[in-house]
Write a structure and sequence with these properties.
alpha/beta, TIM Barrel, 359 residues, 8-stranded parallel β-barrel
Length: 359
């Protein structure tokens, strides 16, 4: 009798242990630490005219700004710069002074432990003409990336963001330009992660919309990367026109719903995405919306690489609603929702930008 009782108790213990494991696995959820990117844009180098003077018309991130955001725990900087200043003439060599500025800034960010995403912040344009026009061919865009990729090929912690928010370009034309750029990057031996936007400003909410020339959701499935080391870069704001230029976040529901739908699309097609820009003012509905967007990505690290908030930067106006650059009063209100999303520490820092072995 005693043996049977002990066996019964043992079976119950085993069953209870298995149930506990099942319950634990069903109720566990992903952590923000599972995301590769948890960072911000540091604006300033994209400012000014092509012949502008550094420190007068444009600026790269200062050492105090870089140190401030590193100390807060951000791990990634999307670094905007101006295409025309780096390459004054299409198809020709880079301006050596500007290239050294860019490389010096990247080195300073890397020294502080940041992943750096290179961001030609041109909206798909060069000197007033968009990519795909008679003035700016897809081939010339690819030539730009061939030169830039050669400068940063296979450097640890460096990702290539092809272009900030292309627009006024038919999706098929933009796809051709993106594919030529990707082919050029790979042709010089660079295996860095490539972040590929769609056209129509690469908005999350508008990703599936057909504006008469095709949708990103259909056309951008045609991206070709010989080593399959890319993700889509998307942007999303929550204000009335989804531009990020208004204080009130009246479209938080629309933004989050768009993220949910994009997650489903990504999962269906075996793709990944990165939220390169999002932001909001200090208004309570904006802070709540930011939390919801951050939580949505943290729940789905299988399809989201992470995020970079827009924005900080030494020259940002104190009145700029999305600004998280500290002022005389100290930290900005938005940090109250961003800082919790930076913890715990990354489970595998920089995993998504690790250079894959040569094939």
């Amino acid at each position: 009798m005693k043996d049977k009782t002990m066996q019964s108790r043992h079976r119950r213990a085993v069953v209870c242990t298995m149930l506990a494991a099942l319950i634990g696995s069903s109720t566990s959820h992903a952590s923000p630490a599972d995301l590769c990117f948890r960072g911000l844009n540091i604006s300033g180098a994209e400012y000014g005219e092509v012949d502008g003077v550094e420190g007068v018309n444009f600026t790269y991130p200062s050492a105090p700004t870089v140190a401030y955001f590193a100390d807060k725990g951000f791990d990634t900087v999307r670094l905007p710069f101006k295409w025309e200043r780096l390459q004054p003439t299409l198809g020709e060599a880079f301006d050596r002074t500007e290239l050294e500025r860019l490389k010096t800034s990247v080195a300073g960010l890397r020294e502080k432990g940041f992943i750096v995403i290179l961001d030609p912040h041109n909206f798909g344009y060069y000197s007033g003409s968009n990519i795909g026009s008679a003035e700016v061919s897809p081939r010339q865009f690819a030539q730009f990336w061939i030169r830039l990729a050669a400068e940063f090929a296979n450097e640890d912690g460096i990702a290539f963001g092809l272009m900030n928010e292309p627009h006024d370009i038919a999706p098929a034309v933009w796809l051709d330009a993106a594919n030529q750029a990707i082919a050029g990057i790979r042709a010089v031996g660079a295996r860095n992660l490539i972040l590929v936007p769609g056209t129509h400003w690469s908005g999350v909410v508008t990703w599936p919309e057909d504006f008469g020339r095709g949708s990103n959701a259909v056309v951008m499935l045609g991206v070709v990367d010989p080593i399959d080391n890319y993700a889509f870069e998307v942007h999303q704001y929550m204000d009335k026109d989804l531009s990020g230029t208004n204080e009130a976040c009246v479209n938080a529901d629309l933004a989050v719903d768009g993220m949910v739908k994009l997650s489903e699309w990504l999962r269906t097609h075996g793709k990944r995405a990165f939220l390169g820009e999002f932001g909001g003012s200090k208004e309570p509905e904006c802070l709540a919306g930011l939390t919801r967007m951050l939580d949505q990505m943290a729940k789905e690290p299988d399809v989201w690489l992470g995020w970079t908030y827009w924005a900080g930067g030494d020259w940002w106006s104190p009145e700029e609603g999305n600004n998280i650059q500290p002022d005389a009063q100290g930290d900005r209100a938005q940090l109250s929702v961003l800082l919790p999303a930076l913890k715990p520490a990354a489970a595998d820092p920089g995993a998504c930008v690790r250079i894959p072995p040569a094939g």
